[in-house]
Write a structure and sequence with these properties.
The protein has 228 residues and is of the alpha+beta class. The protein is built from 2 helices and 12 strands; from the N terminus they run αββββββαββββββ. It starts with a helix and ends with a strand.
């Protein structure tokens, strides 16, 4: 009796095992059972249903109004830029004279921090100067000092040698070091420019100091800025 019932029980066990494995074979034909599926998605968000991945911004602005630079901030990114107003004697230099002008830089609201470095002067685009063969241009000297925003831009701004970042011929002298500007307008760096005609300027062979009379020059300077 036990031998007759053992075969059917064995076959039932095999069928259940095949069903549990996901396939049922009947009469040599295979049947695949249906299965459940699911997917999950995520996205880079900001916690408020907005985009959560993006880039920072870096932008510097300038002010040529002089200390204390409370108003007049603007951006001017191509040569010649805004006009720095040199002191009254700028168009009447004699050998040994100097003239002064100021500018301040900072990052704009929302900008990351960065560094700026002053390049050497180039002729201002679109500004006419009367200086045949660049004789006056090559004779002029420039000094640039970093100052506090409350400092008046004059000869006294150069009293501390450590504050002088540029000193030499106008045509070839840029800053020796870069200055750091804090993010989000948190710091302001002021600069004082001195342009001078030395008592004994460098002149081409055969040219006298008297031949510098009545000439003009229009130097433009670039502050090259890079985010940090």
């Amino acid at each position: 009796m036990s031998e007759q019932s053992s075969a059917p029980a064995s076959r039932r066990t095999k069928i259940f095992a095949l069903v549990a494995g996901g396939a049922l074979v009947v009469g040599g034909v295979g049947y695949t059972l249906a299965s459940w599926t699911d997917t999950e998605w995520v996205f880079g968000g900001n916690g408020d249903d907005g985009a959560g991945v993006g880039t920072s911004t870096f932008e510097v602005e300038q002010n040529v109004t002089g200390a204390p630079y409370t108003a007049g901030w603007a951006q001017s990114e191509t040569n010649p830029g805004q006009a720095m107003t040199f002191t009254a004697e700028a168009l009447a230099l004699s050998p040994g004279d100097a003239t002064y002008a100021a500018v301040a830089l900072r990052t704009v609201a929302g900008s990351v921090a960065g560094d700026v470095r002053l390049a050497s002067a180039v002729p201002a685009d679109g500004v006419t100067a009367a200086d045949a063969d660049d004789v006056l241009w090559d004779a002029l000297q420039v000094r640039v000092a970093v100052t506090a925003t409350t400092t008046t831009c004059d000869a006294a701004a150069f009293a501390d040698p450590a504050s002088v970042i540029a000193d030499g011929a106008l045509a070839t002298t840029g800053a020796s070091v870069a200055q750091t500007l804090a993010a989000n307008s948190a710091s302001t760096q002021a600069y004082c420019f001195e342009v001078s005609l030395p008592p004994n300027p460098t002149l081409p062979a055969g040219t006298t100091v008297d031949q510098l009379q009545g000439r003009t020059a229009a130097p433009a300077w670039e502050f090259a800025a890079e985010s940090s």
